[in-house]
Amino acid sequence: MKSRAAAFLLFAILLSGVALAQEPAVISGQVTSAADGSPLPGATVTVPALGLTTTTDEDGRYTLTVPPGSGPAVEIQATFPDLSPSTVEVALSPGSATQDFSLGVGFYESITVGSRAVGAEAEKSVPVDVFEIQDIQTAGASETNQILEALTPSFNFPRPTITDGTDTVRPATLRGLGSDQVLVLVNGKRRHTSALVHVNGSIGRGSTGVDLNAIPASAIQEIEILRDGAAAQYGSDAIAGVINVVLKSSSPLTVNLKGGSTTHGDGALVDTSVSNGWSLGRGSLFATVEYRDREDTNRAGPDPRPQGSVNPVEQPNHHWGDAETQDIMGFFNGQTPIGTSGSTSFYTFGGISRREGSAGGFFRRANENRNLPSIYPDGFLPLIEPEVTDYSAAFGLRGARGEWFWDLSTEYGLNEFQFNVSNSLNVSMGPTSQTSFDAGALGFDQWVTNLDLSRGFEAGLAGPLNVAFGLELRREGYEITAGEPASYIDGGFPDQFGAKAPAGAQVFPGFRPSNEVDTHRDNYAVYVDVEGDVLEALRVGIAGRFEDYEDFGSTSDYKLTVRLQPIEALVLRGAVSTGFRAPSLGQSFFSTVSTNFLAVGGVLVPFEVGTFPVGSPVARALGARDLEPEQSEHFSVGLVWNPTSSFEAGVDFYRVDIEDRIVLSGNFTGSQVAALLAPFNVTGARFFTNAIDTRTEGYDLTAGWGTRLGSDSTLKLSAGYNATENEVVRVAPTPPQLTGLQEVLFDAIERRRVECGQPENSLRMSADWKRGGLFTSVRESRYGEYCLVDRQVVDQDFEAEWLTDLEIGYEFPRFTWAVGAQNLFDTFPDRNLEPNSNLGIFTYPSHSPFGMNGRFVYSRVSFKF
Prior knowledge:
The chain is mainly beta. The protein is built from nine helices and 43 strands.
């Protein structure tokens, strides 16, 4: 992967040397409050069509350099938290121009995803949620995924436990679909996914998704969530929608400190960041460094089984809750006109993060064959302690040539997941076994180059017809590196009872040389996107995309959007589209042998099972076939009512049909399978397969209202509701080799995971009030009913729960202090029924949508210099 990184850097250097020679226009002005005329420092001023962004200084003043050839005029927008934005058209001419803004109170959405049209209305033809700095800061959470879950009801982020690497990199979902069926963008550019494949009993089993927690909250200006299929616009993965993370472009020197813990004596958190923005000639650079230390939480019950130990075993001996993690992250975002005339803008952004985690597996009792009393006389809790590193960097040029806007960029991203095992042993190595192991590593990298062009045409319609088209080249690589031999070998020693001992490190046997892979694939895509006002009240958009993959061929997709505004206060909108998701390289090539646990008579029994690539001899012996891309059809219709600038409400209905959805099969074991696998010295196996078709139906409700209460007081209310129903409409027949094992290919637990494992509905309500420097934020969340999917013995459904978050603080000119509580009333999910709780050890469901930590209290301070 180093050669790919070197090539990427060389391309970036060549790209940054390009310039055109024409004279730019300089626009400057001041942003003030409409209520009292006071300046608004930190307001954001943008030229959306060109991707130019700056923020105002202490006096509310700004300066923007617009490259020549941008047309006779451009639209400039000014935004500030809690205030309505203002958008004006500014005529361009060589030299300088002045444009001031006065912002009032209101509810609004400032959107950059969903449409490529220059100056398109804030209300697109598809629904988009926008969350700004104040929403992010007052959400109470520190991790980006938890912040999103607190803000939007269509986003689900459970806290799995005893799921190997998934305890450290946890999957999130949108609209109840898979964690790999949502596309993540950063500053509008495709973000690379994690190297980890989730193969244990969590929501998102069988998927590889983007690790949003590798992006520090201190780097984020706003988050946009497009709740609509968008593969025809943005490519693979955008079946459920798109999340676009917009990075800050400037900031005064700011130090943030946050600390807290649960009221149950665990889960202590320390989160600190340092951010700053610099003016570099005519350009700017923003950078932040954030450190987060999160201690584990544990809600395990006592283990009632005979321990067979020399000494009493401290209870609980299991770990059932959040893993311990330490994160250090750095991100940057910069841009500047280049060349003597500033005719072209150069931009760059990216970051690096490193996470160290520690999570427990199942406790090994002293009298089990997986323990050696000479090493652990009282048994032991083995730990998986991953080291996860993430790198990304993007470089680009954007500008205008004649009436054409263009954007040329390249971006490289790399994620590495190192498996370390500690407090463990390899029983087959006998009394001399080591207790810590390097169990191997996963790696994924992505290099994407994009060229985007657009311009408006006068076509005799009610408004300009915007035409956009472009090209994307993408190269993805996937790698598995074997662990040290002691992590996987069979050393030949018997267990403590004289029988054959299990080989490999306990809790996670290392990757073997036979598991190693270093592969890549190339693909290219071309798209065209046309949108315009056909009539005064009717806006129509058509998009098409052709994409060709080296490993499975090509696909073509389309999208049609319609936006009708019969009166100024009412918008009717609808969309129909097709989509696809290419099988990830991890799904195609991941392989390992791991310890799984099967419920037998209410007790979890361990067994070894291998995950094999579909192209391997083992998987072929079981009838596995090459993976095909998932294909989808998406339908949506909705309306938005906006009677005043301070109130807005909307409803959107949707249906998503997905064919050939990729899932991880159940564990094929038993005498029939053993006979098939005898030539390979394997007794059990599983593989990825296009096993099911699904239908997802639901609706979203949103409402927001903002007003001024007196001369120095504001109130903002918002609410969102999501209802989603997932149904498996087809299950593929098992291969002929596995006749009679249909329930293993896609068993009852996996069906429940898809159909009812996530809340059937969710509600978010918030109230933000500010008077002078005093502010408070109250958020109420309802998590709907869901069912048990993890280590199930009997069917179990969990009731809906209400959670309340509260934050109160005061903002001084250069200092902010706040205290708050997440889950103020200490709400827990229903307990697992006794047959499902592994003798009472696993107290709560690990896929609870709000975890099982209880109340978390915190304090945060912010210093601006």
